[in-house]
Fold these 2 entries.
Entry 1:
Amino acid sequence: MSKKIPKRVSISYTVDFLEVPAQAEHLLSELSTSVNGIAKKIRNIAAQTREHTVESIEDIAQTKELLSKASLRLEDVFSILTGYIDIIKDIVEAKRIAEEEAAAAKLPPEPKKKPAAKKKPAAKKKPAAKKKVKKEE
């Protein structure tokens, strides 16, 4: 009974929540170094392709594997950071709900309002009558 050896395994360890961005930065820095090495390898392949086509094909296959691993590492960091942001969102939402509930608990219940009575239209004022002034002659 033979079991297949997996190509990838998950390694799990814990860090302080506030250290997550620094850990992600460290992983990305390592990835940057790897990608720079891959870029150099690709430049070397390009330089030798005319004279050493067969070797170039083999080097390209190896480079594809390296790029695949780099992509997986990038996906790991992406997952770590999105998980970190999700936790922050959950904390902010829980705090908002707690504040709303605390504010609601402190307020007395709102009294039931009676329907507003309809206002009668204001009576129109009659214009003042003009006094006739008699001219004396």
Entry 2:
Amino acid sequence: MKTFPIGGVHPSENKLSGAKPIEVLPLPDAVAIPLAQHIGAPAAAKVAKGDKVLTGQLIAEASSFMSANIHSPISGTVTAVDAVPNGQGLRQVMITIKREGDEWAEGIDRSETLVRECALSSAEIIARIKDAGIVGMGGATFPTHVKLSVPPGRKAEALIINGVECEPYLTSDHRTMLEHGEELLVGVTILMKAIAVEKAYIGIENNKPDAIAHLRKLAEGYKGIEVVPLKVKYPQGGEKQLIAAVTGREVPPPPALPIDVGAVVCNASTTYAVYQAVQKNKPLIERVVTVTGKGVKGAEEPADPHGHADFGIARSGRRASRRCGQGDQRRSDDGPGDGQPRFARDQGVFGHYGDERPRRRAPRGFAVHQVRQVRGRLPDGARTLLPLENDAEEGLGRARRADDHLVYRVRLLSGFVSLVPAAAGLGASGQADRDGNHPCACRGSQEVNLRT
């Protein structure tokens, strides 16, 4: 079975929420949407205080080629366009919107009807992706229209879809491939047309046999798409490792890029978002986010909702906390050793920062789970959880049940959590994150599909 040739580790697998379907969470009452939630220049606000906005309406415009449009995940009134503390405690310009109903902008197709045929040219596809504000949903938030704009003198030979999801806890891409497989494959054909290639590979680690079998069966109806099972090994989801595993080609050291070996790589969730943008005229205002761990006890609530963004921490966190035993605690990361910041109450749901400050213990009473940044820093979900099960000080390691891990969808990728009340019980008094550089005591486990 294929894999990348050099290095790699085999962390314990904890795909706890992989069997749980995505659910929908309710809309937040208010959101604060950062203008810098992607690689490149911040977007420029197109609305002002007092303006009425609709769900899916453009509220901030890309200010350069390496930037991305931002759309409102809710309908309501703009209450502020001002600097707000972000996940690092630094002030950042955000658009704050108070929700009023759920009215959508005209032209967005919200039906479930599959649209397979795409008559657009390559340039028109890329333009529509840019208009929709699509960025990489594997965590880097690289503007997708930039990735698809092959530089002069380069030629794409193959498209690679990243369905690896090698992190030990993540299942958001897994669920997307299972629940939106047909739409994903149409998205693959659209991307193939955009970069003018005849061949596409979907790389999936073999710990997801249901996704492999499902997409293989569907791919029989699509020319040039091959599903490639891969050996389980971290960090196979890295772009260069995936290219080596699938094609056998090695991307040279920087400044070389995947296109230098003829490859263009897109995440599975990004590909689904491309389908929605091109075929449904739907901007990037939602995604799936995994929030998981072993601290959850019973399930007194229905599993797996699909909701909207601001409450990545606030609401999904409260939901998680109610499912945990007293004293249970978790810290979630974007991935092993990623150096990402943690979030505390009144903090935004972000993850695009490279915070390398010395680690410290978190203050008591603070609770948070970090969600991996996507658009507004709600990338594809909470990453690996710190394995504290054997730490007597943390009092972890409680028995779990098969139904303890959920999948939620919430709107608003570019979300900001306005409040995580102490009453939510997210942080148990007297406990602290052992070595987090920001408070992060998440008492819960579920997978969240954030609709932003």
